[in-house]
Each structure stands twice: as C-alpha cells, then as structure tokens.
Amino acid sequence: MAADHAPESKKELRERFILARKSLTTEERADKSEQVCRTIASMPEYREASVIMLYHGMPGELDIQPLVRHPNSLGKHFVYPVCLSRTEMAAMIPGGWREGAFGIHEPDPALSRVVPPEEIDLVVCPGVAFDSEGTRLGMGRGFYDRFLPACKKALVILAAFEVQHAEKLEREETDYMMDRIVTEDAVYGPD
Questions:
Q1: What is the C-alpha to C-alpha distance for residues 185 and 36, in angstroms, rounded to an integer?
Q2: DSSP secondary structure of 50-72
Q3: E strand segments, 11-148
C-alpha cells in the first residue's frame, strides 16, 4: 500500500512551477508568449479597454510586452506596477524606468504618473502557477492580492504558460481570483 503524501507547501509548489517554467527554451518562451499576447489582444474586453495594467517579467516569466506592439493596442494607455513599500503597490504610466524591487523593471516614480486603480479597465498579471478555477499562486508577497480589489471595473487576466497549470491549488481568503487565465493552449474562466 502506498504511503500518503502530505500536500506540497506553497514554497514547494513555487519551486516546482518555477522549474517547469524554466524548462522551456528561450525560443519556446518567446513563441508561447507571442501566442498568449495574440489571444489576449483578440479578446473583446481587451479591444474595449482604454487603460491596461501590464508587467515587466522576471527571468523565465511569460513576456507580455508583445501586447504593447499589437495592432489592437493602438491608442491604449499602459500602466505598470511599482512597489512603493514592502506591502504597497501602485500603477503608473511610465515617464522613465528604473530597476525596482526584486530586480523588476518598473516605472520611475519621480518621472511617472500614478493612475488610480479604479480607472484601470484590464489587468494582466504574472504568476507562478494557476488552476482552472482561477486560483493564482504568486511569488508570495501579496502585492497583487492587496492591489486588485481596488481595480473595481477591471477584468483581471493571468498570463501564463500551460506548464504552470496545477491540478488544484489551495485558495486562501486573501487570494484574489482571476477572471481569466490565458495560456498558449487555452483560455480558462467563465464562458
């Protein structure tokens, strides 16, 4: 009889899915990132959105920047997250860039303009893992989980590789559920 295995901790899950993401070649990541960006750009909610929050990824993360160059992005305003403290994040229209917290490229607050979260129409989030029900596993600092509830009108999309798909993630009360998850293979969420 097989021994029961304890469920993986969030730390173990992060390690496993970061390794899965890193297992993709540079070319695979680029191709799959382009596919995800094309899918997001074709969504009616994206075409109708005026203010869109994107991110600059960490090494190995899905590159969402091709979305900015997509023809459906013409005339849109892109905002990016900026870590203001150990717990607080803001969205800014970049006037210049800096290397921010955790080595992530972010708008320089001295040169950029804050956009209130309630003005954001669509948010594209990074993540480490996800499940089909919309649960997102992030890096564990909770910046998005604290920021997203203030984005009252925004559709929230997780952009991820299919290798980040977990069968089922434990959801905590503070975890913000994604409206959609877009991978190179599928769109998860209602409808």
A1: 8
A2: SEEE--PPPTTS---THHHHSGG
A3: 51-53, 77-83, 89-93, 97-99, 105-107, 113-115, 122-125, 129-130, 136-137
- Any idea what the CATH number is for the domain that residue 153 is in? 3.40.50.10420
Residue 28 placed within a domain:
yes
pLDDT at 37 > cutoff 80: yes
Q: Is residue 5 part of a domain?
A: no
Residue 62 has pLDDT above 80, yes or no: yes
CA distances from 124 to 7, 12, 62, 107, 179 (A): 29, 25, 11, 16, 10
Q: pTM for this structure?
A: 0.91
Domain assignment present for 124: yes
Judged against a pLDDT cut of 60, whether residue 4 lies above it is answered with: no
Residue 69: both structure tokens together: 């160059």
Which residues does residue 125 pair with via DSSP β-bridges, in sequence order?
Answer: 158
- The pLDDT, as a whole number, for residue 142 is 85
The pLDDT of residue 46 is above 90: yes
pLDDT digits (tens, 9 = 90+) for 87-119: 889 999 999 999 987 778 899 999 999 999 999
**CA–CA distance, 7 with 190 (Å, rounded to integer):** 28
